[in-house]
Amino acid sequence: MKVLKEFGTFCANDPMINFEIPRKIGIGMSRGTACRLISKNKIIDYSGRVLNLASRLMDFARPTGIVFDADFGIELLSNEQVKLFCKESIYIKGIAEREPIDIWYTKDLIKVPASAKQPLDKIKWKIDPHHWTLGNIKKHAKTFTYTLQSEPIDPEAIRVKIHHPAILKGRKQSGYETTFQFANFEYILEAGKPNIEIQFDALAKRLESNGVKNPWPVKLEIIYPEG
Hints:
Elements: H1 2-6, E1 26-29, E2 35-39, E3 42-47, H2 49-61, E4 65-69, H3 79-82, E5 85-92, E6 96-106, E7 125-133, H4 134-139, E8 143-147, E9 159-168, E10 171-181, E11 185-190, E12 193-199, H5 200-209, E13 217-225
Parallel strand pairs: 1-4
Antiparallel strand pairs: 2-3, 4-6, 5-6, 7-13, 8-12, 9-10, 9-13, 11-12
């Protein structure tokens, strides 16, 4: 709780930190046994369900908040701290896809997405692909609006994924590509039509910083749950 509250000030007044740094933190916690890989009496890595679960819960906690497995023990907290948390049953990819697990989360900081409250094997994911070049993206308006084929069951689960040719020493690598998620977009339901408004100016800057040239192909994938 102290880390969550004070994280944004950890580097305050530090002359060595003269660049932009994260101001928020999401914390996921679980409890149990793990395996460790040892070589020459040194611990190389840990693995196991407990680590995978903590990592998945951290995704729910971002950008700021705390999420922990209910088996961790809410009774470990004081009565005042317990009031900060809310209990929920969720499904988690690779861990609890058909049968939910219980979690506790900071209720004033986190909203559990609707897609996490139903079995993952019943969710149908839709992918809308769109093909551009960097040059065409730069020529377009500041933003571009796509109308989705159907309304998402959980707008917060929408993702925009970008693909472009892989680059090595300024040259395009045939047969290889670079992929990244692009967060500069907004979901708008207008007159019953589900729209995604993508910040093309920010996308163009990101592609240029990656070394993409104007005539090179760029593929946008809008991924969302149909239900």
